């Protein structure tokens, strides 16, 4: 509960830039509530006047009644206008605040470290950005004015009750603490289910996103049934939390109304005695009954909005959880880059582990001279990709140092470190835009000539020209309208256009056929010329010409040398190399 209250208080930092409109909305709300509370008293005046005329045997005082009717109409018009302007102002405040909140979340996601996304499902993160922000926006949009109106309405209506009759007012206000007790009790029981509901919704989004992206694989292996069962389990969990939260919060309305009906009965009986005694007019009793309704209606609104508010509270907590995550500071130090990057890389007694209890890299040391091509090979889990993550400062070393041109990368800004590198990943990533813009992603101010030149260097120009609309062809959201090999070539073109000082190829040829592999190798030979290059490859035949081959196993370099020298040593590399050809022979 304390965490939810703290999160709700933090919302003011997003509302405060719009505080003028916010207070105008509150002012119009106060005005509308005041006019609404005045209305029952004014509508009771004609009733009292007519009864008085009848009892005295006089004619009906139509001039007085017409004045009161005009007053009622005026109050109604001003009430509607005030209510309209309060809604307009509040809408502008909420939409502005939510725009700022979404902007901060988007900026925060860009500052989160890679380790955060390694431990959180994409769909779950997406749920916080979309579903949780929407739940909060809807609650503020629909509920804030309603809550303020309800509280002010109750206070003003109770005040008018005391003005009309103190004894009946004291009887009536007993329903307020009774209603508050019921509401608080039910909220305390239902809040955990609303929190569980939002978490389950995030899990459901994560599950659907994950399995939709791998839909073809699911179909291939016939895992539809298992996937459906997994979906049912997550969906049923969401359903259970949703039912419990809705059912428990739904009990508030009938229980609160029960207290109101009891108050109606008590006031009707008591008021009749006061009228007979002459201490209360019938018009005032009529107004008093309406004031009970004006207290009952806001209490009912509060109970109806309880579910929305609890959902928003849970969403707010989840939103600020991601905003409070530890950030990856890109500009964490001020060591400048050398004017000219030579590409001299040294790993000096580097140690690293994802889990302190399970050391991965213990004491890794090697040197790469400028312009050299270094191949990193080894079995799965040897630490090859981890080495690249450390080089790019996606993770920081536990001890030791990684130096570029003699400068410890931990003394350099992360953004400067990554500016040095160009990277082609095993999983080619393209986004929904034209082919030309996907290549230009590596250098946003690149000209069309540079885009075409990079495509030619990457041997993808011919493929692009055969596509519908060529460089203007739209890549769909899943990039399924181009082949895996073409995607890989496009990402290589993207790396080429960025003109990196150091190049990293992480299984760059793993997704292509033999012909495309030859094209990529030819392109990469041109791209790597004069650049320090790191190549991770399972196909050992592609790294024969590497200046240095590092053989890794269990986080350590167990062998290093050239292709010929490692084969001559007859060690682990020779076994890897020969086993690969034996597998190919067995396959044939």
Automatic annotation (TrEMBL):
A Gene Ontology cellular-component term: plasma membrane
Q: Fetch the InterPro entries from UniProt.
A: AAA+_ATPase, ABC1_TM_dom, ABC1_TM_sf, ABC_transporter-like_ATP-bd, ABC_transporter-like_CS, P-loop_NTPase, Type_1_exporter
TM segment ranges: 20-42, 62-82, 144-163, 169-187
> In this protein, which residues make up the domain named ABC transporter?
345-579
- Record keywords: ATP-binding, Cell membrane, Membrane, Nucleotide-binding, Transmembrane, Transmembrane helix, Transport
> Which residues belong to any copy of the ABC transmembrane type-1 domain?
23-311
**Does this entry carry the keyword Transmembrane helix?**
yes
Q: Which PROSITE patterns match?
A: ABC_TM1F, ABC_TRANSPORTER_1, ABC_TRANSPORTER_2
The record's subcellular locations are: Cell membrane
- Topological type in the membrane: Multi-pass membrane protein
Under Pfam families, the record lists: ABC_membrane, ABC_tran
Q: Which CDD domains match?
A: ABC_6TM_Tm288_like, ABCC_Glucan_exporter_like
Q: Give a GO molecular function annotation for the protein.
A: ATP binding
Q: Which domain of life is it from?
A: Bacteria
PANTHER family xref list: ATP-BINDING CASSETTE SUB-FAMILY B MEMBER 10, MITOCHONDRIAL, ATP-DEPENDENT PERMEASE MDL1, MITOCHONDRIAL
Official protein name in the record = ABC transporter ATP-binding protein
């Amino acid at each position: 509960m304390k965490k939810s209250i703290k999160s709700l208080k933090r919302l003011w930092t997003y509302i405060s830039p719009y505080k003028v409109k916010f207070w105008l909305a509150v002012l119009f709300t106060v005005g509308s509530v005041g006019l609404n509370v005045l209305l029952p008293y004014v509508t009771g005046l004609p009733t009292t006047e007519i009864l008085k005329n009848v009892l005295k045997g006089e004619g009906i005082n139509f001039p007085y009644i017409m004045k009161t009717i005009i007053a009622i109409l005026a109050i109604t018009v001003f009430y509607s206008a005030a209510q309209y302007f309060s809604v307009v102002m509040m809408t502008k405040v909420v939409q502005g605040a939510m725009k700022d909140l979404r902007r901060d979340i988007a900026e925060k996601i860009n500052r989160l470290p890679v380790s955060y996304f390694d431990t959180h499902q994409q769909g779950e993160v997406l749920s916080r950005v979309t579903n949780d922000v929407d739940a909060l926006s809807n609650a503020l949009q629909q509920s804030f004015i309603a809550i303020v109106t309800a509280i002010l309405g109750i206070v003003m209506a109770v005040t008018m009750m005391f003005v009309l009759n103190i004894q009946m007012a004291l009887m009536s206000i007993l329903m307020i603490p009774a209603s508050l007790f019921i509401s608080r009790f039910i909220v305390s029981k239902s809040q955990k289910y609303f929190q569980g509901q939002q978490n389950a919704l995030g899990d459901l989004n994560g599950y659907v996103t994950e399995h939709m992206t791998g839909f073809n694989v699911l179909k291939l292996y016939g895992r539809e049934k298992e996937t459906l069962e997994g979906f049912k389990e997550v969906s049923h969990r969401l359903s259970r939390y949703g039912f419990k939260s809705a059912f428990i919060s739904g009990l508030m309305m009938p229980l609160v109304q029960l207290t109101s009906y009891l108050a109606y009965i008590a006031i009707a009986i008591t008021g009749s005695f006061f009228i007979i005694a002459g201490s209360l007019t019938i018009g005032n009793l009529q107004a008093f009954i309406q004031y009970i309704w004006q207290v009952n209606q806001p209490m009912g609104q509060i109970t109806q909005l309880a579910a929305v508010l609890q959902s928003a509270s849970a969403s707010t907590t989840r939103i600020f959880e991601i905003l409070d995550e530890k950030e990856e500071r890109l500009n964490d130090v001020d060591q400048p880059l050398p004017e000219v990057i030579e590409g001299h890389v040294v790993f000096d007694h580097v140690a690293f582990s994802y889990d302190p209890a399970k050391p991965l890299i213990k004491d890794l040391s090697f040197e790469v001279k400028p312009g050299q091509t270094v191949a990193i090979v080894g079995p799965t889990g040897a630490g090859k990709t981890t080495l690249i993550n450390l080089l790019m400062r996606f993770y920081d070393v536990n001890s030791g140092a990684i130096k570029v041109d003699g400068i410890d990368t931990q003394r350099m800004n992360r953004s400067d470190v990554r500016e040095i590198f160009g990277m082609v990943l095993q999983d080619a990533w393209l986004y929904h835009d034209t082919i030309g813009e996907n290549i230009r992603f590596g250098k946003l101010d690149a000209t069309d000539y540079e885009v075409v030149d990079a495509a030619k260097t990457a041997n993808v120009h011919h493929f692009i020209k055969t596509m519908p609309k060529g460089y203007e062809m739209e890549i769909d959201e899943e990039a399924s309208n181009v082949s895996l090999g073409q995607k890989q070539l496009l990402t290589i073109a993207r790396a080429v256009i960025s003109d990196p000082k150091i190049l990293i190829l992480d299984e760059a040829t793993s997704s292509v056929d033999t012909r495309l592999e030859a094209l990529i190798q030819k392109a990469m030979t041109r791209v790597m010329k004069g650049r320090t290059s790191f190549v991770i490859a399972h196909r050992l035949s592609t790294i024969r010409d590497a200046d240095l081959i590092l053989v890794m196993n269990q986080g350590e370099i167990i062998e290093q040398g050239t292709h010929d020298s490692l084969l001559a040593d007859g060690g682990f590399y020779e076994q890897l190399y020969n086993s690969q050809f034996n597998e190919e022979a067995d396959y044939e």
